[in-house]
Amino acid sequence: MMDGWYGSGWGIGAWVAMAALMLIFWGGVVTVVVLLVRRPHGGDGAGAPLPPHHNAERILHERFARGGNRRTGVHCPAGGAQAPGMKAISRRGQLFLGIAATILLTALSLVAVGLFGGLVNPGVTGFPARNRCVAPDLPGPVISVSLTNMGGPMMGARNGGMGGAMRMTADRSTLAHGAVSFLAANAGTLSHELVILPLAADQIPGTRPIGADGQIDEADSLGEASNTCAEGTGQGILPGTTGWVTVTLPPGRYELVCNLPGHYAAGMYTQITVN
């Protein structure tokens, strides 16, 4: 059992928090840009005082911008030197444009984060899970095992568990002895694994002693699938991916478990019977 990827998936809470932070960030950026654009510019742009004749020209220009010269009776449209065909954007319009720009930038940022996360670490995007792996032709009968969780821990369970927030289900409960392959698909938002343990005749699934670390003893493991998009042992099966393992099982009862910290107590176990 490897637990290096425990808790690596993103739940809905993490995405909501990121969206809120991005809204605040991009809202601040847009606000600063608007304030800089609307800031009045004086002089010739170099900060030096204008010559007297330039000051007079500017005063006259400002009078015309306000509707004309009262002494001469000359009037011009508000806006002064505004180019023909252009209409000044009202403050309400600027507000709407700022909000739209903030929402658009936030959405693009979230998409970029999701896509980048999928490229760097496939399956840890927090987006709806989908199988990104293509398993090879596996020998023997193939048992499909689904690994799921409800998006986050539910406190209050025994031994630091997660209160039944997780599930492991197999598409069949009985099979013939011999070579058998297990194809474990992670449909949750956290990393999971599949460990195969023998189950005594009088033992009830889900009742194994759990240590202080939230794990059970797996010294008698017959095999495990904890490798993302590959066979055997690895760093955990990432969300939206699969792992597989092929073992030879004699007749008996077996318990399939996820032994990442707290996952067994949260309900990640099921049993199969080999005839």
Attribute tags:
275 residues; 5-stranded mixed sheet; 4-stranded mixed sheet; Immunoglobulin-like; disordered N terminus; 2 domains; alpha+beta
What this model shows, in words?
With 275 residues, the chain is of the alpha+beta class. It has 2 domains: 12-120, no CATH class; 142-274, Cupredoxins -  blue copper proteins (Immunoglobulin-like, Sandwich), CATH 2.60.40. It contains 3 helices and 9 strands, in the order H-H-H-E-E-E-E-E-E-E-E-E. The strands form 2 sheets. It has a 5-stranded mixed sheet with strand order 3-9-8-5-6, with no helix packed on it. The chain has a 4-stranded mixed sheet with strand order 2-1-4-7, with no helix packed on it. The chain is rod-shaped, with a radius of gyration of 33 Å. Mean pLDDT is 77; it is low at 1-9, 43-47, 119-129 and 152-163.
Sequence of secondary-structure elements: HHHEEEEEEEEE
**Content-based structural category:** alpha+beta
Overall shape: rod-shaped
CATH level 4 superfamily of the largest domain: Cupredoxins -  blue copper proteins
Outline:
With 275 residues, this protein is α+β, with helices and mostly antiparallel strands.
List the helices and strands and how they pair.
Elements: H1 12-38, H2 52-65, H3 91-120, E1 142-149, E2 166-170, E3 174-175, E4 178-186, E5 194-199, E6 223-225, E7 242-249, E8 252-257, E9 269-274
Parallel strand pairs: 1-4, 3-9
Antiparallel strand pairs: 1-2, 4-7, 5-6, 5-8, 8-9
Helix pairs in contact: 1-3
